[in-house]
Amino acid sequence: MATLHDTETFxxxxxxxxxxxxxxxxxxxxxxxxxxxxxxxxxxTIQDRRALPSGxxxxxxxxxxxxxxxxxxxxxxHPLGYVEQxxxxxxxxxxxxxxxxxxxxxxxxxxEQPLAPEQEARWLGWYTFFPWEDHRDGxxxxxxxxxxxxxxxxxxxxxxxGVRQARTQRAAITFGLDxxxxxEELVLQRYELLYEARLIPxxxxxxxxxxxxxxxPGRAMILDHxxxxxTGIARLRAKIKYHPVVxxxxxxxxxxxxxQRCVEALAGRLVHKQNxxxxxxxxxxxxxxxxxxxxxxxxxxxxxxxxxEVLAERAIVGTKLPISRA
Amino acid sequence: MATLHDTETFxxxxxxxxxxxxxxxxxxxxxxxxxxxxxxxxxxTIQDRRALPSGxxxxxxxxxxxxxxxxxxxxxxHPLGYVEQxxxxxxxxxxxxxxxxxxxxxxxxxxEQPLAPEQEARWLGWYTFFPWEDHRDGxxxxxxxxxxxxxxxxxxxxxxxGVRQARTQRAAITFGLDxxxxxEELVLQRYELLYEARLIPxxxxxxxxxxxxxxxPGRAMILDHxxxxxTGIARLRAKIKYHPVVxxxxxxxxxxxxxQRCVEALAGRLVHKQNxxxxxxxxxxxxxxxxxxxxxxxxxxxxxxxxxEVLAERAIVGTKLPISRA
DNA sequence: CATGCTTATACTCCTAGTGAGCATTTCTGG
DNA sequence: CCAGAAATGCTCACTAGGAGTATAAGCATG
Lengths: 326, 326
Prior knowledge:
The structure is a homodimer of 326-residue chains. With 326 residues, chain A is of the alpha+beta class. Chain A has three domains: 26-127, Nucleoside Triphosphate Pyrophosphohydrolase, CATH 3.90.79.10; 130-218, no CATH class; 250-313, Orthogonal Bundle (Arc Repressor Mutant, subunit A). Chain A has helices spanning 64-76, 141-156, 161-175, 187-196, 201-204, 225-239, 256-267, 273-282, 309-313, and strands spanning 23-37, 40-45, 54-56, 82-89, 101-109, 122-125, 253-254, 286-293, 301-306. In chain A, strands 1, 2, 3, 4, 5 and 6 form a six-stranded mixed sheet that branches. The interface between A and B is large, with 105 and 105 residues. Strand 1 of chain A pairs antiparallel with strand 1 (23-37) of chain B, so a sheet runs across the interface. The structure holds a DNA duplex (30 and 30 nucleotides).
């Protein structure tokens, strides 16, 4: 049928009926599957650790979400505790082939299970892909050593002084330079900045021959998979602050320090122990099991379990506007 | 080509290559276009106010986002100040035809412009579709009068006492019953609750013949467009709290009260005037133009303009975890 | 078995943000 | 001149959350 996006008029017919089929395209699902093991955030990868698992668009399921869940659980035997749609990518030439592919990406939280050795899938720490994102021991040295000089060169390379200033400012804000605070949620912005500055191997593909140009440490992935992973990390780092999803990554029972280490692993930065406990307990997110963990290396810690009831008891709040409660 | 989602094994080949085309499906874009006119939040509709504008999946553009922007601006002559992807819907039988359609929905902010009279598109206040969402004059009477009794009946209709209790609790939380606070962000949850309770005409289609069953006030839309609209409203209500997008809905210059009325219109609730001003000025989001508006009916108000620089100066923050700044 | 290391747990202090109300100023319309 | 409507300025009280101190309870080791 005729599509109308060339029509310059805007009359009755100009908006096609929502029932009309406009373009047949190809679609698939891409999953960012996250677990936290031994205090490290990890993602499931395939293809020699260079790709995120992607799968068919299943037609049988009630919803995309349930389709994704069933597919992952069948393929990996990892039950998914939490699933959330991330973003739909359909940029031109994503695949580099001229082929238009729509990829609907999802974030899934799980607990790492042993993978059969013949399987191609591997769990890998996500800081392998984003070494500049782990600030648990302070800002990684590679930021000052490798990123800053190249970002400065990139900024200086702009002809227009306004652009130069804007690039410098963007780098300073996203990477927390010049005494600015580090904002762990800007994962995607940082990746995109490095991409624009052509410091990411993925950005050089097609243009320069592989191997040319200075690139920055951090494992590359195929196509735009690293961007999708960055999107997932950013979403998760934001989410843990107002929704109790961390517990989907924890074992059934855990100590408060384990919980804290898990949050820190995801956020890539440390939190104040006493305040963390105060916050968790004030919200009544957990309850004691009555047991203690003896292998802490110090005073035994009480074991806790997530109070699943809170998911029903509460709705997510979080208000920044001066809203009257009257 | 063969899809692998029936395979129960998980070996090398089980994850198809991301380049593989798994299913050819139909895709379109759906836009929630919002403006605030005369203190009322409005959305652009077509098809006798029963549908959101939807359009073709454009292949020429660099990205989905730019494709949507170009399409809307060409069709409606409304420049879009802000565009954000909402959600991708592909649930089975969304269209009711068995046809699988993927709809990528977007939220766009603009300023209402006159529409040519022959155009099918119409701006309509969004509370026409969600009369229970406007709490600017206190909770609408229709909640107590029309919603609560039917939700109670629905809850009581469950055989299992646990389900009864859960339904009652959900209704109480989402609608702020039993002295609970009203949370304006739960737009989608409220709509889905009413949908599940079969109080929404859209939920009765196909099952019961049209006209049967008690439904609740509020204009219906085709397919799942009202759900998409609810998603957009919810997203916008959340967004205005931590990102300065309201200004995309305002004229070039405005008084602080106009700005406040705009926020209140979107949030569906009132804010404390003095605190609102304090917040806006503390964040240095606006600057005085030097002029005053005389037609306020009282003391003339200073006119302000949005300081666009803040978009570059700042990154969005907002932290709820006890994160150390050291 | 005393000592020191490690971790858990309990309090205290301080400050920025913010909800709420009062008071004063400056306009318009009778 | 007076009432009404906003705009604008200021105070107050409370809370969340950042940071530090102090104490308790285990283990390893000489």
